[in-house]
Every structure is written in structure tokens, then in C-alpha cells.
Amino acid sequence: MSWLPHRAQPDDDGADDPRPVPAPVLTGYTPAPEPPPTKALAKPAETKPGRGRLGSLLSRPGAKLPVAGTAQRPRDVIVVNNLVKTYALGDIEVHALQGVSLTIERGDFLAIMGASGSGKSTLMNILGCLDLPTRGRYLLDGVDVRGMSEDELSDVRNRKIGFIFQSFNLIPRTEAIVNVELPLIYGGMRHKADRRRRAEQAMKSVGLADRLHHLPSELSGGQQQRVAVARAIATNPAMILADEPTGNLDTKATHEVLDIFSRLNAEGRTVVMITHEDDVAAVAKRVIRLIDGHIVDDHRAAPVNGPPPMYRAHGNLNEEALLDQVAR
Amino acid sequence: MNTENFRIAIQGILANKLRALLTMLGILIGVAAVILVVAVGNGSSKQVESKLSALGTNTLTVFSGGGFSRGGKKNGTQSRRIVLTQADVTAISNQANAPDVNAVTPVASDTGATASYDGSTYSPASFIGVDPVYATIKNWPVTEGRFIDQNDLTDDSKVVVLGTTAVTDLFGSTSVNPVGDEVVFGGTTLQVIGVLKSKGSNGIQDQDDIAIIPVSTMAAHFTGATAGFSQLLAQATSANTSNAAESEILAVLASDHGLTSTVASTDFSVLSQSDLLSTTQSTTKTFTILLAAVAAISLLVGGIGVMNIMLVTVTERTREIGIRKAIGARKSDILSQFLVEAVLLSIMGGLLGVFGGFLGSHFKIDSIKPVIEPYTVFLAFGVSMLTGLFFGLYPANRAASLRPIDALRYE
Q: Residue A183's pLDDT is what?
């Protein structure tokens, strides 16, 4: 596998590719790219101009870029200020988040931990733009998502977030490669050949180049989750958001998926992972604990600029060491 | 619209082939029924049209009006039945009175006469007495023997010409040649002199269920001399003069019976073949519209079937909708995906229905050959498409409006 050794190697696809593809050409570990927020929004040339996903995001009045008071450094992918989320469950008010403030830097690998009911799923939904906070500011890659319409949120999710779910959530009866192409289709990428090439690269980077035309039902859980990872990185999003990604996997598949996360992070991608397992959180550079809607612990295990812990500890990922840890 | 949504919608249909097929069946039946019902109605009116025009559009039938006299209307004490007589026939035959009438024959009928031959008995639907010219006016040749001639008329000959149904009923089979045999009609023995060519049904009754004798014989042996005639059958010189002939006949009858001509039209009525044609056609049209309405309702039911299945599909695929939205599908993407699916279902059903309609039109239905009206094909197909659009809109909109967070959580 070309991705296992982590020194830079030109992607074998690159040679016959007439134009540079901005998306997941995986070239081993490089420092996190740091374009200014506006630049990060720039559309790839082949996206459909008519949809105006970018235009609508930038021109809308609510989309204030770095605002006084919540000065956002260019490194920050996520700035969350005093986030409050209250649900009305019948007559009872549920305070799922009670003033969460959090900044996630580009290139970080963050694990959010907490027992069920701690508000971590609510936080994940808000960070993933699936839900809006009751109060508080949320800047995603420099864009304030407050007051966005449903379609604008769809566009933000499409361009900036790569979702990975506990239950894989691949579209059933649809080939793996088509699943990976879907976000590109919704992103307005017109040319099938371009889409297919990018999706194939994403599939290759998760080690499933030989499973392109398999249906989800023909793949193992680990393989399905890797297809989901490929789908998440296909659009080259600002952040990969994984909700209990290993919750439905056995130890071997867990190892495979965490291995991929570490590598993606080593390549400069921001990864936010929600989990309740300590050994899974151990692969992250920074671990946050939530209890009753408050952040109670914020621990940094490794610097943002360096490789993730498991990666650093073993040079290459040491399978036995990780398996050993997972088994514990 | 994103063309990818087309592919996604087709995948959605292919994922559930049996269900898609059954849903299409509803539309198929509706479309095929509309096309076929109109085609059968159309075919039946074409058939009646051709039968009646074969008889000649210049034939006129004169009835005495309803059997009630003017006297009854005047004071209610005296009732005088107006009857058609030989004098009327003679007056109409006179070229000076009615120049546009080519020929006229009385039609005297005796109802309830029973015929018997060699133990088998039979009551003809029509037992009539006519002049020899009847065969010319009706354009009705004999296949065996001869028709009544002038000698039979002057001699009150005891002869009869039978229709094929009468032959079958009396002699057991049409292959028998009954000419020369003697049949007893209500106590009078009549000799069979001819068999009429089979005409089949005119849509109302079997025209071959008939026995014809000279009108003089009818008066002498059956109805009596004073009974008069139930009808006169006349032939105009051409189709164009049929209206003129009609008013001439009414005028002659009015003067014969001492009536003013305005009153005459209520005492006598003249029915031309073209009147009969338009009456039959309007009846057929009414039935066709009625049946087409029933067929259209079945199309509506098919549309409701599409809506039903789309609602099930949306519920079933709630999670999928959530996934699609999470990875960036807009409202319009989801809307068009499900709308295209619904419209494709009904278009395919519509196309199959058109095919079924064409297939069905190759079969005769109750001896009527359906004739497809081209407009019904476009109408039925267009309506089926609109049905899909209309009934697909609600489920598709429901899918598009799902909140991703709820849809993802759906189990």
C-alpha cells in the first residue's frame, strides 16, 4: 500500500493526470495547509458555477468573517463561543449544552469524550451543522452558521464537513464508488470522469481500490466504515467529523479505521472524533471530556503541528501495540 | 435540475422492481381502459354508421303518431285512432303529390302470430305484410326462391318469405332449403317462396327474425281489411331529397286525413335513416362518455396508488434521506429525486398502458372492432404523467422537508 510508509511519495495517479486535482491526493505527512479562511472556501474549478454555493455563503450578511471580540486566528477551523442548546421535551426543558466554548485548530486531532447524556451528540450535531445552537456563536472555517437557511447549511456540510457515523450510513443497494461520489454530485461537480477519478483516489487512500463496485451489503463492517471515510474525504473538507466511528467494529476493524484517521491527520486533516472509549481517544492529539453539557477536561496529548500520538510512538503504526491497547 | 437525480431515481425504482411494477399496473390499467373504452365506442358508432348507410340514407319510415287522436286532446270525450290506409299509400305513390318519393310500401304487422312446421313452432319477432317494392327499398335480396311479386298481391296468395332466423327456428338449420314447404301461420297455411339474405343484428334486434307475406294476404287472412298499417316505408329519390320527401309525405297524409299540416306532424311522424343514425350515435356517445369517466376514475385510483407507494418509499428511506442531506443534498435535490421517481413510475405505466390499449384494440369486443382515437392516446398518456407529478409532489415534498438530524436518527 502506497500510503503505509509515511514519507512523501507522489501519488501514482498524478502522472497521467492532466491537471492538478486539489482533493485528496495523499502525499504523506505534510504540515497543515493554512490558507486564509476565504481562500479555503474557494471552489474547485470543476464545480458547477450556477449553484453559487460559495457565493451565497460569502455574500450573505450573516457570514461575518473574523469578528471583533472573537478574533479568529487563521489556524482555527472551529471557534465555538458559549454554546447553549436547550430542547423542549414535552413540558420539560433539557439543557443539553450549557455554555461550551471551544477552539479547534487546523490540523488538530480532537477526541470528544463523555458518557451518554453528557451532550456530546448534541455538540457533534451542532459542529456538523445538522442542528443549530439555541444561543452562542459558531464559526466554522470562518463562517458564522447562525441564521443560515436549510440549503445553505446543506452546502456548508457538503463543502466543509466529512461525516463518519457509527452505523456507517452508506446508501444501501448503491456501489461503494457511487457512495463516495455522492457528495461530489451534490457539490455540483459536473463531469462524471472527474468525480470518478476523485472518488477512486479516495477509495485508494483507504485501501479499497479493489472494492469499487461492491455493494455495502457485500462489504465487512470495517470495509464499510472505510468507504464512509473515503466518502468523507472526497470533497476535501475542512474537518472530518466522526461520531463513534468504531462503535460497531471489532478490534481489527477498529484498528484499521483509527489507523486511517491517524494517517489522515498526519497528512494535515483536522479530525474531530466523538467516542466514549479511552483507548480509542488515545489516538487523538487532544482529548475533551463533557459532563452534563460542560467541558470538564481539556487535555493535550500531542502538539498540533506534530504527528498524532500513535503515529509518533511507533514510527509507522505498530499494529501489535495498537491491537494490544484496543484489547485492553 | 441535476441530471444525477435521474440516475438516483431510476436506481430507486430498480431497487424495488415488483413494487414498481404493481404501482405501474394501476396507471397501466387506467390508461389502457380510457383508450380502449373510447376505441370501442368509436368502433361501435362506426359500425352502426356503416350498417345504416348500407341501407341507404334515403329511406323514410312513417308512423302514425302514438295512437292518440286530436279528438282526445280537444274535449276528452271522443277518441279517434288515426290509421294509415291503402289510400295514403296510393296518394303518396302519386308523382304529382310527392315528386321526391321514389317508392312506398305499406308495412302491416300482426303481432303474436305463431308459425308451425312439422311439430316445431315459432313466433317471429316481425310478421309483416308488404308490397313487392319492399325488397327494393330495404335493399334486401333473397338467397333462395323469390320475393313477393305483383301477382301474389292481386291474388292474396298464401305465400311467405322467411328470414334466416325463422328458417333455423322452423326447419332446424339454415342449410335446409325450405322453398316449396308449407308452414302454418295462426291457422292459415302459407307456402314458403323465398329466404332473405342474412342481415344480422342492427344493434337493437335480430333483423333476420322475420316472416314477410303480401300486404293483401295480411288484410284478408290476419288483421282484417279495416286494420290499416302500422308503418309506411318510403324511399326518397336520393339522399339529398330526403327532407323534401319527408315534408311531402306529411302534407299528403294531412290532406288525406283532413288535418292542418302543423297538427299532422303530431299525428304522424316520419323517421329518416339519418335521424336513426344520429339517434344511435348520440346513444353510443353517451355510453362512451360514461364508460370513459369510469376508466378515468381508475386512472385516478392508479395515481393514488403512486402516491401511496411514494409515501411508503419516503418513510422506508428516511434514513437514506438523512444521509443524503448530511453529505450535502439540498431540499431541491431530494425533492427532484422523489418527484422524478414518481413521474417515471407513472410515465412507464402510461407507456405500457398505451401499448396495452393498442394490443387490446386488435380484439373484437362483442363483435365490435375497436377503432383507436389518436387524441385519447395523447390525452391518457399526458394525464398519467400529470397524475405522477401531482401525486408525487406531496411525498417528495415531505421527503425534502425532513430535518437531517431527525432523518438520521430514524430507525
A: 95
User: In this structure, what are the phi and psi dihedrals at residue A131, rounded to the nearest 5 degrees?
Assistant: -145, 155
Task: Indicate yes or no: CB of A186 within 8 angstroms of CB of B324.
Answer: yes
Instruction: Indicate the pLDDT class of residue A73, thresholds 50, 70 and 90.
Output: low
Contacts of B328 in chain A (CB under 8 A): 154-155, 157-159, 183, 186-187, 235
Domain that holds residue A200: 54-60+107-118+150-327
C-alpha cell read off for A287: 482529548
**Could you tell me the maximum CA-CA distance found in chain B, to the nearest angstrom?**
104
Q: What is the dihedral of CA A198, B333, A135, A241, to 10 degrees?
A: -30
Q: How many Å from the N-terminal Cα to the C-terminal Cα in chain B? A: 30
Listed in sequence order, the residues at least 6 apart from B167 whose beta carbon sits closer than 8 Å to its beta carbon are B174, B176, B178, B195
Q: Taking the CA atoms of chain A, what radius of gyration do you get in angstroms?
A: 19
Number of domains in chain A: 1
Exposure string for B360-385, b = 16+ CB within 10 A, e = fewer = bbeeeeeebbbbbbeebbebbbebbb
Instruction: Find the CATH number of the domain harbouring A218.
Output: 3.40.50.300
Residue A92 lies in a domain: no
ipTM of the complex: 0.77
Q: Of A151, A155, A174, which has the smallest distance from its Cβ to B11's Cβ?
A: A174
- Residue in chain B closest to A128 (alpha carbons) equals B326
Q: What is the mean pLDDT of residues A206-218?
A: 94
Q: Among partner residues A171, A173, A183, which is closest to B328 by beta-carbon distance?
A: A183
Contacts of B286 (CB under 8 A, 6+ apart): none
pLDDT digits (tens, 9 = 90+) for B269-306: 788 877 777 787 888 889 889 988 988 899 899 999 99
pLDDT band at B321 (very low <50, low <70, confident <90, very high): very high
CA distance A216 to A140: 31
Residue B240, C-alpha cell as written in the block: 339529398
Which residue among A131, A159, A235 sits closest to B405, beta carbon to beta carbon?
A131
Mutation target among B16, B327, B330, B337 for the A interface, most CBs of A within 10 A: B327
With CB atoms and an 8 Å threshold, state whether A159 touches B328.
Answer: yes
**A232 → chain B, closest CA residue:** B327
B320 to A130: CB separation less than 8 angstroms, yes or no: no
Residue A295 lies in a domain: yes
pLDDT tens digits for A31-40? 444 444 443 3
Which residues of A make CB contacts under 8 Å with B?
125, 128, 130-131, 150-151, 154-155, 157-159, 163, 165, 169-174, 182-183, 185-188, 231, 235
DSSP state of B240: G
Residue B325 to chain A, least CA–CA distance (Å): 6
Query: Phi and psi (nearest 5°) for A192?
Result: -60, -40
| Contact list, A130 vs chain B (CB under 8 Å) | 326, 404-405, 408
Residue type present at position A163: F
Distance CA A300, CA A285 (A): 6
Write out the three cell numbers for B300: 385516478
| Ordered alpha helix ranges (H), B2-138 | 4-14, 17-55, 70-74, 86-93, 134-138
**Half-sphere exposure at residue A11, Cβ-oriented, CA atoms within 13 angstroms:** 21
Residue A247 lies inside a defined structural domain of this protein = yes
CA–chain centroid gap for B360, Å, is: 19
Q: Where are the alpha helices (DSSP H) in B80-236?
A: 86-93, 134-138, 150-155, 164-171, 215-218
CB contact under 8 A, A155 and B326: no
CB-defined contacts A:B, below 8 A? 58
Residue A97 inside a domain? The answer is: no
Strand arrangement of the beta sheet that strand A143-144 belongs to: A92-105, A76-89, A135-140, A143-144
